[in-house]
Amino acid sequence: MKRSNIRKWMIMCLTGIVFFTVAACGNKDGADSDLIVVEKKDEKVVNLFSPMEKTEADVENVARSAADKTILMAEEKLGVSVGYVTYTAENYQDKTYDDVTLDRARNDMDDIYLLNPDTIRMLAEEGKLRDLSGLECVQNLRDVVKAANIVDGKLVAIPQEVVAYGLFINKDMFDQYKLELPETPEEFLECCRVFKENGIETPVGANRWWLETFVLAQAYADLYNGGNTEAEIAALNSGESKYSDYMRPGFEFLQEMIDQGYIDAEKAYVSEAIEGEGEDFLSQKTPIVMAYWGAANTETAYGKTDFEMLVIGFPSSRGQMPVMPMTGFGVGINAEHGEDAMDVLDIMLSDEALQVYAETNRVISPSKNVEVECVPALKPLNDRIQDNVYVLGANAGMNVEQWGNTCLIVRDLLNGATVDECMAKFDALQEEALKK
Known about the structure:
Order of helices and strands: HEEHEHEHHEEEHHEHHHHHEEEEHHHEHH
Radius of gyration: 21 Å
Distance between the termini: 15 Å
Largest sheet: 5 strands, mixed
Number of helices: 17
Number of strands: 13
Strand order of the largest sheet: 1-3-2-4-12
Helix content: 40-55%
Shape: globular
């Protein structure tokens, strides 16, 4: 699979992350016409490129508001102005956010960039990102954040939130059929069998983007929680181990769900996230869907249900497993205002600023010192994360990008490819990476 194709689809695979709900630029006349630039005339200006522009003028963008608060803190403390260069995707055509970001970063057009996992890795490998490990805020980061964004020994990106994916469960329906919440893949399949036998046509509501969460949870439960993470990743990067061996159990699990009718593969292949399965979940026609942390806080998603909802981890050999893709802010290696940009990030990512951000968005903070009270439905997932039990859905230290590639190859499975054919694609990606 070509990197260009990964970048075209990567932004859609991360639709759960608030900043990354845009997928492509609408104007074909060049990058400049795809951007909104907010210029500031102050003496010291730091330029930030992100997709944080409101999609509609009269709609409140909570994520933008939260980020704005932290930026304002940096402006006031440093006496600088942060100029927004924002990506908009009016018609969802042509260039993805990743395409535009790569072009701007490679040409040193901005100071700070909000980056997706695959672009973090690519730009770091090209030497286009500064090492952020010397920032004071780094001392407070969770290990998971640092592990996800270290490339060649350098910490090249830091997020303002940690996005966690889990299974959204209709607890009332589980109680109705006297089912315990599943821990392992076998227990999950048994729950689906019981639902199916009791007239639930499709026990699992799925879409074309997020089924990879099942695969990643099963593939890397031991890698991230077995105490040998660095050595296992090194073996994968050297070719000593095969990504396909890790991925096979998860793909075989999905194939069984397809064969048993526990998911509707044809519908999932064409369904957008939440739009495809959300109505059936809310109307209690299907008891299980997968979504990101923030969907439990949002009434337009699953923040207000007529039943008891719980969010748990995905089934794995180590029990319920949260899956966390990772994004982050990076600073260009040749940034015109590089030192000021580093100072801005240090304040935006300080515990003080991250507390404001987390309280505004009710999200998991990248700082181990910052916690906010989550809604009751999220407590099972949050408990696992607080115990440092998780799987990374994206890791810049792996030489084969995980989240986007797995998403696309799962879609091949939904479209009729065999498990062996899917594993051959992972092998091809690994061989391509080893040649570089």
